[in-house]
Amino acid sequence: MDISGPHHGDDIDPADRWVRNPHTGEYELRPAASAGEPAVPGPRSAPDSAEERRVPGPRRAAGRGRGGGRAPRKAGKRPTGGKSTGKRILLWTGGTLALVAAAGAVGGYLYLRHLDGNITTTDTAGATSDSFSKDKAFNILVIGTDKRQGKGDSGYGDADSVGHADTTILLHVSQDRTNATALSIPRDLITDVPDCPTRQPDGSLKTVPGARGVRFNTSLGQLGRDPGCTVRTVERLAGGMGIDHFMMADFNAVKTLTTAVDGVGVCLAHPVKDEKSHLDLPAGPAKIEGEQALAFVRTRYSWGNRGDLDRIKVQQQFLGALFRKMKSDSTLTSPGRLLDLAETATKALTVDKGIGHITTLKDMALELKKVPPKNITFLTLPVRDNPADGPVPKTVIVQEEPARQVFSMIGNDTSFTEVKKKQKAREAARLKGPRSAPGDVRVVLYNAGAPAGSAQTTLAWLQTEKGVAKSGQRGNTGTHQPKTTLEYAPAQAGQARELADLMGLPASALKPGRSETDDQGLPAVVLRLGADFRGAGIPLTGPAEPPSVPTQTADQVKCAS
Asked: Model-level pTM?
C-alpha cells in the first residue's frame, strides 16, 4: 500500500494508514511520507497481509478538503518564536471535544503522539499551573488575538497589531461537572495591567512593566507581553481568583473547525450584508462555515448598537451553536469528522505548558464533555460607559458591585443556572433556627490563611457596616487552613447563625465546639479566616441571588440582532 502518492488524501481510506507491526503486536500510524521520512516516527514494517492492515476503531471516508499529501511533521512541540499566537474563541468547545472522540475512535498511541507534535506551548513564567487536576474545579482563560495570519485573513483584524487580546473568555468548569460559566471580558475595558515576568528565547526572565488605566487588550502583545500577562491581568480584575490555564486559537481555527463539522447552525433576526466583514446572510436560520463563519463572529456594525458588547453577545450565541454541533450524533458518529477535528484543533492551539500534551487536553475535554449544554452559562463582565470619554463612548469601565458578585460566584463554584437550587435550599435549611441581633453577637477574629490584613479589614466592616460592635481581632493564628470556619459553644448557636448570614458563610463553615473569652471577659464565637476568604463583604457562598446581568445558555437558540 502506497500512501505517499499525490492522491492519498482523496481516495485512500485514512483507516488504512493504521498498520499492525508484527514485531510489537501494536498498530502504528503511517501518514504521508516525503523523501523517505515518516511523518510520525516509530517502528515501521511493511504490511504483509490484510490482518496487518486491520484498524482498531471505525473506518472513515476520505478526508475532505485536504487536497494532496500532508507535509511531514517532526515529533515534538512547535516553538512559539516567530509564530503568531492565534485568534478567536472556539477551542474550548469544539477542539477539545474533538480530541476526546478522535482518541476514542482511533485508539492509537502513535496518532496521539502525532497530535502532540501539533501543539504549540508557551512558558507563562509561573502565571499558570504546572498540571491539570480532574478532581477540582478549573478556570481556563481563552484568548483570541487581532493579529492577522492564515490564508484569506488579511480582511480581518488590525493589520498593524502585534497581537492584542481582542476576545477573552474566562471559562469556569465546576468541580462536580454539572455546570460551567463562560465570562466574556470586553477588549475596550479600562483597567490596570500588572508588571509581568516573561520568558525570553534564551530562557531568561524579563519583567515587562505594568500600566494603569489602559485598555484590557494591551495586556497581550504590547511591549512584548505574553499570555501570562493577560492571565495576571484577569486575576487582578477578579480580586485574586486563580486561573489555572490558558488557550489561544487563530483566525483559521474558526474557518477550519466549522468546515470540519460540516457547518454550524445560526439564526439572524434580520438580513445582513456587511461591507466590512463581507457577511452576507438572509434573515432566519442559516448554516455557516469557513469564511462566512469567521465573518459572523467578526461582524460588529450589523448588530445592536454597532459596538463590541453586542458583537460579544453574537459570539456567545455562535459558541453555544458550535458546542451543540460538537455534541451532536452527526459529529460524534463520524470518524472522518472526528479525525479532521483533532488535526484542526491541535494545529490551531497555543496553550501553557501545564496542558501542553494531547493526553492532558484529552483529560480536560472529557471533563468538559460532562457538562450539559443547558448548564453552560454565557455572560459578559458587567461594565458601563467610561465617563472620561465624553459624549461619544469609546471604552468601558467595570461596574464594581455586580462584577464582584459575578467573580464571587465563579470563585465559589456557584452555578448561574438552576442546577444547584436544591443544594441552596438545603444550605438555607441548615442555617434555620433562632438568631441573635447583630448587636448581641460577640466574635473574635483570626487570620488563618487569608490575605494579609484581612482580620482588621473584616473587623472594621463588621463594626461599621453590620453593627457587630462586640468584636475584636487577634491577628494571625500561626497556622494555615484552607477554609474559613466559625466555631461556637452550644449556647452561642444563635450568634453563629447570624454572623454566618451576615458574612455569607456556608453551613459547612459552622463548627460546634468551644468559644473564647473576648476582651470584656465574656464568651465569643471564633471566626478564623482561611485561604478561601476573598475579602470583607464578599460571601463565600456567592450571592443569595445571581446578579442582575444578562445571560444565555448553550442550549438556547437565539437569533442574532
From this structure: 0.67
Rounded CA Rg of the chain: 27
Cβ atoms of residues 148 and 113 within 8 Å: no
Query: For 264-318, what is each residue's pLDDT tens digit?
Result: 999 999 999 998 889 999 999 999 999 999 899 888 888 887 888 888 999 889 8
DSSP, collapsed to helix, strand or coil, labels residue 281 as strand
3-class SS at 385?
A: strand
163 compared with 430, residue with greater pLDDT: 163
Give phi and psi for 18, each to the nearest 5. Answer: -95, 125
Strands (E), 83-153: 120-122, 138-145
CA distance 409 to 464: 25
- Classify 387 as helix, strand or coil: helix
> Given this model, what pLDDT does residue 340 score?
78
Q: Is the CB of residue 93 less than 8 Å from the CB of residue 319?
A: yes
Classify burial at 87, counting beta carbons within 10 Å of its beta carbon; exposed 0-12, middle 13-18, buried 19 or more.
buried
pLDDT for the residue 419: 53
- What pLDDT is recorded for position 332? 63
How far are the Cα atoms of 2, 240, 297, 305 from residue 455, in angstroms, in the given order? 72, 17, 46, 46
Residue 484 has pLDDT above 80, yes or no: yes
The arithmetic mean of pLDDT across residues 354-366, rounded, is: 89
Torsion sign across C-alpha atoms 542, 545, 547, 550? positive
**Distance in angstroms (rounded) separating the CA atoms of residues 112 and 358:** 6
Sign of the alpha-carbon dihedral angle for 443, 446, 449, 450: positive
Weakest mean pLDDT among 77-86, 179-188, 390-399: 77-86
Whole-angstrom distance, CA of residue 369 vs CA of residue 366:
5
Q: What counts of helices (H) and strands (E) characterise the chain?
A: 14, 26
Cα 510–chain centre separation: 32
3-state secondary structure 12-80: CCHHHHEEECCCCCCEEECCCCECCECCCCCCCCCCCCCHHHCCCCCCCCCCCCCCCCCCCCCCCCECC
The CB density around residue 197, as the number of other CB atoms within 10 Å, is 16
Q: Give dist(CA 83, CA 250) in Å, integer.
A: 11
Distance CA 260, CA 279 (A): 20
**Among 362, 381, 9, 449, which Cα is nearest to 216's?**
381
